[in-house]
Amino acid sequence: MIDSTLEQIKRLRKKYHLNQKELADKAGVSQSLIAKIEAGKLDPSYTKAQQIFQALEQLREKEEIKAHQIMNSKIIFAQSSDHLKDIIKIMKQKGISQVPVMQKEKVCGIISESAILQKIADHPETVSSLKAGEVMDDVPPIVSLQTGLKTLLQLLQDNQIVLVAEKGDVKGIISKSDVLGKME
Q1: Distances 61 to 23, 69, 91, 96 between C-alpha atoms, Å
Q2: How much is the average pLDDT of 35-46?
């Protein structure tokens, strides 16, 4: 297990386009230590291995795609007092499946196709009189512009969208399809 982990050092170093000296400088170790580890001639101490992997992790975070690079800045919001039928019409026109809901300039929930369908199934007779506040689900996660792809992927496993904000002001929205579109 440890040997296979140590073998990752060379692969990751090359992935980040570093030579042994550059990685050694970033990790605070000698170039010869990196060379011996990569050649399989030396098992480093736990502390030295930790330094090397921390340097590699910092490089990964630096190169990782950030929320502001993926987000869609054209957000369509609904107000909690908007009629559901109007929101459905907008969702169909724009080809979107969820809409963040605002109340007093703050996001207070989200209306999704699944929430609408559930409400219709539960109370088909009241659909024409429902308002956004009566149908919405909880607020989706809100992240900063610098949130990395790894975190976004984890959030999108359990949520339909993620909102991107700067100092409390929503700047963008990220859906699963936005992430998949960035992978092209």
Answers
A1: 15, 14, 35, 31
A2: 90
Question: pLDDT class for 4, splitting at 50, 70, 90?
Answer: low
Which residue's structure tokens are 């219709």? 120
Name 172's bridge partners. Answer: 164
Say if pTM beats, i.e. exceeds, 0.70.
no
Q: Which residues contact 6 (CB under 8 A, 6 or more apart)?
A: 37, 40, 43, 44, 49
Amino acid at 1: M
In the block, tokens 């340097």 appear at 55
Q: The tokens of 161 are what? A: 């969208």
What's the CATH class of domain 2-63?
Answer: mainly alpha
Contact 67, 171 (CB under 8 A): no
How confident is the model over 78-107, as a mean pLDDT?
Answer: 92
Architecture of domain 67-182: Roll (3.10)
